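SPW repeat-containing protein
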Amino acid sequence: MPPTGAPRIPPSGLFPSARSRPTFREPHPVRGGAVAAGAGAGAVWLLAFGVVDSTVRGYAYWTLLAGAIAWLVSLLLGKLGDRGVAVGVAAATGLGWSIAGVVVGVTWFTSGNWPLW
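Tokens:
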């Protein structure tokens, strides 16, 4: 222990006694439950539009329309609402569009005719 009048030596930093930097946290964190809810809502939305028509052509066009609307809602949710739900809706829309693309591709491959014209 140094004498009372001796100058104090600053700590070396090897064992810091207090936080030297602030901790920043996301004001609106994305939670797993919200992502799952958004994915479920997006899947139901695409399914509701996908069953409107019974042809591959109609299914593809309805899915594209429903996905475009869902992405606009997802952008709005990301800006003003819950980001987790926005991520879930966008992910479900991407998956739905991928499935529609596979259905169109398989139909084109098996029949030899492009189904969207």
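The chain is about 60% helix and 0% strand.
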